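Why do we care about 3D structure at all? Because function follows from shape, and shape follows, mostly, from sequence. That is the central idea of this module. The next example makes it concrete: a single protein chain, its amino acid sequence, and then its structure expressed as tokens.
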Amino acid sequence: MATFRKIIHIDMDAFYASVEQRDNPDLRGKPVAVGGSRERGVVAAASYEARQFGVRSAMPSVTAIRKCPQLIFVRPRFDVYKAVSREIHEIFAEYTPMIEPLSLDEAYLDVTENLKGIDTATGIAREIKEKIREKTGLTASAGVSFNKFLAKIASDYRKPDGLFVIKPSQAEAFVETLEVKGFHGIGRVTAEKMHKMGIFTGADLREQPVENLVKHFGKAGRWYYQIARGQDDRPVNPDRIRKSIGAEETFSTDLEEIELLLNELWPISEEVWRRAERAHLYGKTVTLKVKFGDFEQITRSRTSLQPLTEQPVYERIIRDLFDSILPLRKGIRLLGISLSNLDSLDDLEGRQLTLPF
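And the structure:
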């Protein structure tokens, strides 16, 4: 008889915004955006009330305001989010040492063997959700399955405050009904490429031979072949060390005007900074990735002696890297930013930082 892992993916609901609404009763029931301002910047997190208007994380503030004129902007308080995250992880540790944090508000748990002798992963997930609510006043969504890919999909399925289970016998049938644009690990650009190939759902993806997927998507093609069948052998890794954090954007037309390129670059840089903050990591190396219209690709990098803990310093480096590719010889089709040589905030305690904590 086959044996399966018991994996739980816990994802806090609109974490930053929910903390702000918890701590400020005047914000409850109202559309809230954390990060940026009404004049400039990027939304780091949006409350569910704001999401009803189409406001999303990584969206430029001006776009968010157009969608929701009554949107309330709140400055982020990462020290508070970090403290709440520690409370949540203390709850996780009551059930298993096999915890793989993905960010301040998200983690995988392997409860195949758990510390409380509870028979089912579903029972553990339900208890964890209840304890998080009691201890923090916040809600979490949980996905339960036999691998990480399906547990992640399940946690998104009935947000907010959801609990959804995908059993081994249900996996293939469940995946075949999903739109590929909703698959964890398939971004917007990849989804659009799949759509041009006639691939819209998990069922469509499963019909593709692995050789064809590798031809069009490189090494990632083998991963797409596996997840179309609900397969994922990755273990929960409590010692997981992230090597880099990045984001990029491919443009519908090649861009040549400096102002237009900078308007695209700053939301990308803001998204990378937001991801680093969420993951509680700071980098020493900033890399700018540029792909031209003829698919020539170049990178420019700069490494600091100390981890970059101050966003204005990080942004000045990005601008210097961008200026280093000027004047432009041809149009640009893609820009990307990444942070590497990462350190966690806990590792930085006691060191000289670029920002006081």
